[in-house]
Amino acid sequence: MKPLKFSFFLLILVFIFSCANKNDVIVKAGSSKLTKKELQEDLKGLPPQARMFLASPEGMSRLKDELIKREILYEEARKKGLEKSEDFKRRMEEFKKITLINILLEEEIKSIQQVTEKDAKDYYEKHRDEFIKPTEVRLSQIVVKNEDEAKKVYERVNKGEDFSKIAKELSKDERTKASGGDMGFFKKGQLNSQIENVAFALKKGQVSMPLNLKGNIYIFKVTDVKGTPVEFDSIKKQLIDQLKIKRQQEWFNTYIEGLKKKYKVEVNEKALQEIMNQALSKSGIQNKEK
C-alpha cells in the first residue's frame, strides 16, 4: 500500500469527529493517543482532491489504517527510548530551526504589498516585447571549448558585460566572432532541434544555459523576436503570479541584507573548507579550489 498523504489525516475531522469535543481521542495505541485537537492544530489546508478521496469507503478505510500505523509506530519508538537518543535530539533541533524560520518568514511576508491586476497590466504595457509568441528569433552565440571557459563567460554575462563584446574576445566560432556572435534571424525548422528548443523558449534579451554540441559548448542569446503578441487576458493570472514571486524575492533579499547589518556574522572559512574537502573526497570529486 502506498503511504497516505499527510494532508489526508485532516479529513477525519470533517467526516467522523465533527460532533466530538476538541480533546476527544481519535486513535489510541498503548499509551499513545491522537486527539482531535492535535489534528486541528497540525493539519490544515486540505486540498479538494483529499475530500473527494475520503468520500469513498476505500478512502475512509485507508485513512483509518494510516492513523493506526502512525500511532503504533510512535508508541514502539517511545518504548525503545529513541526520543532520548542523540540522533533524535539532533533532528529535533534541525526541525525546530527550520520551523522557526518558516514561521518568521510567514509573518514578515504579510507586510509585502499584494500584486494587483493593475500592477500586472502596467508591467505588460511597459514590457510588450516580452509577451510575443515567436515565429522568428535573432540569435547571437559564444562558442567555447570546455566548461571552465563557459563558466568564465557566464560570470561576465551575469555581471552585465556586453554579450557581443565577450563573443568577440572569447568565441571560437570564426564565422560569427567578428560580428559579436550575431547569427541572424531563424524560423522554426531552420535550426538544430536542440538549439531550436532552447532558442524559442527564451525571451528577448535572455541567455541560454550551455549546450554541449559536437565537442564544443554553445551559449546563445536571443537579441530580437518577431511574432504574434500575446493578449493580456490570456496571461493575466500567470503574470500576477510571476510578479508576486519577483516581489517576494526582492523583499527577501532586502530583508536578509538588513539582518546581516543587524547581527554580527562570522564564518570559520578554514573549518568550512575542511568539511567541504572531506565531503568532496568521499564523493570522489576533487576540489579545484584546494
From TrEMBL:
Its EC number is 5.2.1.8. Residues 1-22 form the signal peptide. Gene3D superfamilies: 1.10.8.1040, 3.10.50.40. Pfam families: Rotamase_2. It is an enzyme of class 5 (isomerase). PROSITE patterns: PPIC_PPIASE_2, PROKAR_LIPOPROTEIN. Keywords: Isomerase, Rotamase, Signal. One of its GO terms (molecular function) is peptidyl-prolyl cis-trans isomerase activity. The keyword Ubl conjugation does not apply. It comes from the Bacteria. This is peptidylprolyl isomerase. It comes from Thermodesulfovibrio aggregans.
